[in-house]
Amino acid sequence: MAKQPKDSSTSPATTQQGKGGGEKQPGRLKQIGMVAKVVHQQSPRTIPIAVGIALGVLAVAIVGGLIFGYWMYWLPFGVLVAFLSGFLFFSRSAQRLQYQMLEGQLGAGMAVLENMRGDWSVEPGVNGNRSMDIVHRAVGRPGIVLVGEGDPQRLKPLIAAEKKRLSRVAYNTPIYDVQVGNAEGQVHIAKLQRSMVKLPRNLGKAEVAELRYRLKALPPAMQMPKGPMPRGAKMPKMPKSQNQ
């Protein structure tokens, strides 16, 4: 007698993954809980301070209601402002801790670029060397931004070579370069996103789309290290901040 096929709808692979075999993403509340757990581990005082700020704002609203009356307005408004105040402090603290955890890691700049808001497309590791100095490329309304991570002196020829390579298809498109790090002339990891946002918008949406199309035809630099990555070297992932 032929064996009946098992019902695939109840298999572990199906229950653990979403449609198309992809891993199901956690919900917003679960994400906040995961961030809160990390924040508590790294800075145990952050959450109590956030709660204290919220309670303080709520207390002011209650006192305002007692003095001026109009409880119908003071109490709901106080609850809303109290929650937003505490949550804003928590979000800023979580983002600051994220940058501290990323600082000094290989690919920290790339982790920030991948979480940038706006119409940006990012290409990791367009150039590099055996010393693990690496250059990423971001394309958006300002034009092309080359983001280097590593030693400032070794990054200079890498960025210069990448600019020369891009000039074949970029034509008159502005090309900016930023080095991430703590050395003189470099941008701290916590300020990278801010410095990118401050760049002028030189291109329209159609021009950005055309630029991306031209860049696809550009052959790779072929200067990335051919040897294996150092043991334990990974591109870190940056959790999305809640205040973005």
Question: How would you portray this structure in words?
Answer:
It is a single chain. A hairpin with a 2-residue loop joins β2 and β3. α3 packs antiparallel against α4. The protein folds into two domains: 75 residues, no CATH class; 109 residues, no CATH class. The chain has 244 residues and is α+β, with helices and mostly antiparallel strands. A four-stranded mixed beta sheet has the order 1-2-3-4.
Task: Note the main attributes of this structure.
single chain; 244 residues; alpha+beta; four-stranded mixed β-sheet; 8 helices; 48% helix; 11% strand; disordered N terminus; transmembrane helix; transmembrane
Q: Which regions are unreliable across 5 or more consecutive residues at pLDDT < 50?
A: 1-22, 223-244
* Rounded average pLDDT: 76
What's the shape?
Answer: elongated
**Tally of separate domains:** 2
Largest sheet: 4 strands, mixed
Termini separation (Å)? 60 Å
- Structural class, by secondary structure, is alpha+beta
Q: Give me the count of strands.
A: 4
Task: Give the C-alpha Rg.
Answer: 24 Å
- What portion of the residues fall into strands of 2 or more residues? 5-15%
Percentage of residues assigned to helices: 40-55%
Total number of helices: 8
In short:
The chain crosses the membrane at residues 47-67, 73-91. With 244 residues, the protein is α+β, with helices and mostly antiparallel strands.
Helix and strand topology:
Elements: H1 12-16, H2 28-42, H3 46-68, H4 71-102, H5 108-113, E1 121-128, E2 134-140, E3 143-149, H6 152-170, E4 175-180, H7 192-197, H8 205-216
